[in-house]
Amino acid sequence: MALDERKGVWKSGKGKGRRTPKGRQLEDQAWEEVRALLGDGPRRRDLLIEYLHLIQDEYGHLSAAHLRALAEELRVAQAEVYEVATFYAHFDVVKEGETPPPALTIRVCDSLSCELAGAQALKEALEDGMDPAQVRVLRAPCMGRCDTAPVLELGHNHIDHATLEKVQAAIAAADTHAHIPEYQDFAAYTSSGGYSKLAELRTNGDFETVQQILLDSGLRGLGGAGFPSGKKWGFVRTEKGPRYLAVNGDEGEPGTFKDRYYLEREPHVFLEGMLIAAWAVEAERCFIYMRDEYPAVLEILRREIKTLEDEAIVAEGYIELRRGAGAYICGEESAMIESIEGKRGLPRHRPPFVAQVGIYNRPTLVNNVETLYWVTRVLREGGEILSGVEKNGRKGLRSYSVSGRVKNPGVHLLPAGSTITDIIEAAGGMLDGHTLKAYQPGGPSSGLLPASMDDVPLDFDTLQPHGTFIGSAAVVVLSDHDRARDAALNMLRFFEDESCGQCTPCRVGCEKAVKLMQADTWDQPLLAELCTAMADASICGLGQAAPNPIRLTMKHFADEI
Predict the structure, then answer these.
(1) Residues 256, 472: contact at Cβ < 8 Å?
(2) What is the radius of gyration, based on Cα positions, of the chain?
(3) Which runs of consecutive H residues, i.e. helices, occur in 286-350?
């Protein structure tokens, strides 16, 4: 019997064969739209998040068709594009058949300082007063403007001391774009000697001399870890090249806004410090990772980096500005590096450390914005501007971000040994009718200390004996009008939302903690056991520090729980 006569071997009549590959099909129009947005430049996988921003900004959301087209352009799997897009809070992924979000989004900050200032009532008023088909109202984590709480973001326009009336007026005026503050530009900075130190070092600088100046000044990492800056530079420099530098500008710790304060006023002091650090470790490229919640800062940096290129201080493309997309976890240095590479911001297991295996698996120096600001000042003015200041046995200066129940919230530059009493005095004292009850010394990761501990110097190494730390020096002041248990719950809800979910102790632990803390009476033995599991087994600092608000509330405010 011939092969083609056997039953079932060959189909007869019209077959059911496919005319296209399986899976979501590529749409020509969406492909053309994505190509137009990406322009003529190379299609780089590490720029995936930047490309997603282009589509989100242009169309207000990320459609399934556009995600498919972007995957085609980058020659990567659709699943890879989708998993990155859905990781970050500022991307709106819209599947087939779903309704895109309204053209205008209002994000209301509900972190501790804003909650104390009435953010929840403001959000409810906005939801009642807006047409949901025209305006979307969302809760959002800290926007780094705690000194002007309550704060919301209308499009990309931040409204300080926000009210329903201010929002309605801004919508009527179509005022939805970032407002660029007055700042010291390149011409003003160079007229007072700016970039002369960088030029001097590039000509005949000696690394060991610079390193020793930084070590003698006492400059430490001001993003929270507090590692001596000169020592970190030495570690990276000894690694085999090529080496990179990454600036951690993802200032997402609620209550912190010092980096924004300096960048919106003197961006070139920071930029010169960054380029000095790049010279010190012989970095082949610099990456600035800046949070998306700082649109004004992003625009300032775009302008001034372009000026540095035009003035031949750096080669074109030497500094890459990367825009975050709403993920607190990317403040952790290895998660930030993952995001710079265009991936989900999942912290890496260590070792190896990023100083050895960082961006593109190469040695990478990671510094905080304020740290690099002080690099410039120390090298230009001398290390004595830090080492020559002493208070309560501590040396140096600290930029305290102060908010809450004080008269003059803001960034207050004070001696590093300052106590909460000194900080409140610098902030104009407590609000009328308010008495100090508790304070957060370094963001929600540091928990709460009682008013009775008003003589503790707020600096590196001084708070660990009390079960906390200075972190980013984000000081939030609570009064007798507030409940510590409510503040602690606010902090844990933040961690619950912002956990990347990679490790079970953090992902499940934060959720469980929030449920337990909502009870009228806390189950303290169970919470203590949960805190131990989270602190001991979480991959990164988020899960390890999240128990601090629980532990300190149980220790100092037991009468409330």
Answers:
(1) yes
(2) 26
(3) 295-310, 333-340
Q: How far apart are CA 318 and CA 303, in angstroms?
A: 15
401-to-225, 328, 416, 503 alpha-carbon distances in Å:
17, 18, 13, 31
What is the SS3 assignment for 296?
A: helix
Q: What is the dihedral of CA 436, 442, 448, 452, to 10 degrees?
A: -50
Q: Which residues of 165-182 are buried (b: 16+ CB within 10 A; e: fewer)?
A: eebeebbeeeebebeeee
Question: Any idea what DSSP says for residue 163?
Answer: -
CA 82 to chain centre: 22
Q: State whether residue 53 is helix, strand or coil.
A: helix
CB of 136 closer than 8 Å to CB of 105: yes
390-391 vs 394-395, strand pairing mode: antiparallel
Tokens of 498: 């912002």
What's the pLDDT at 157?
Answer: 97
d(CA 132, CA 247): 38
> Residue 466: which residues within 8 A CB-CB, separation 6 or more?
449, 453, 456
Tell me which residue of 54, 48, 66, 134 sits closest to 340, measured CA to CA: 48
Q: Which residue pairs, CB below 8 angstroms and at least 24 apart, start in 15-24?
A: 23/78, 24/64, 24/68, 24/78
| Distance in angstroms (rounded) separating the CA atoms of residues 415 and 394 | 8
Residue 542's pLDDT is what? 93
pLDDT tens for 464-523 read 999 999 999 999 999 999 999 999 999 999 999 999 999 999 999 999 999 999 999 999
Residue 290 confidence (pLDDT) above 60: yes
Q: How far, CA to CA in Å, does 148 sit from each of 143, 152, 161, 409, 531?
A: 11, 10, 5, 8, 33
Check if the beta carbon of residue 165 is closer than 8 Å to that of residue 123: no
Quick one: the chain helix, strand, coil %, rounded to 5?
45, 15, 40
Q: What angle do CA 531, 536, 538 make, to 5 degrees?
A: 90
Strands (E), 62-134: 62-63, 93-94, 104-109
Question: Rounded to whole angstroms, how far apart are CA atoms 560 and 399?
Answer: 32
Please check the confidence at residue 436 and state whether its pLDDT lies above 90: yes
The tokens for 198 are 């960088």
Q: Residue 9, class by beta-carbon neighbours within 10 Å (0-12 exposed, 13-18 middle, 19+ buried)?
A: exposed
CA separation for the pair 179, 93 (Å, rounded): 27
In Å, how far from its chain's centre is CA 93?
Answer: 22
The CA-atom distances, in angstroms, between 35 and each of 47, 69, 73, 85, 104 are 14, 9, 8, 18, 25
pLDDT tens digits, one per residue of 162-194: 999 999 999 999 999 999 999 999 999 999 999
Extract the tokens encoding 255. Answer: 């209550």
Q: Is 137 helix (H, G, I), strand (E, B) or coil?
A: strand
Query: What are the start-end ranges of the H helices in 282-332?
Result: 295-310
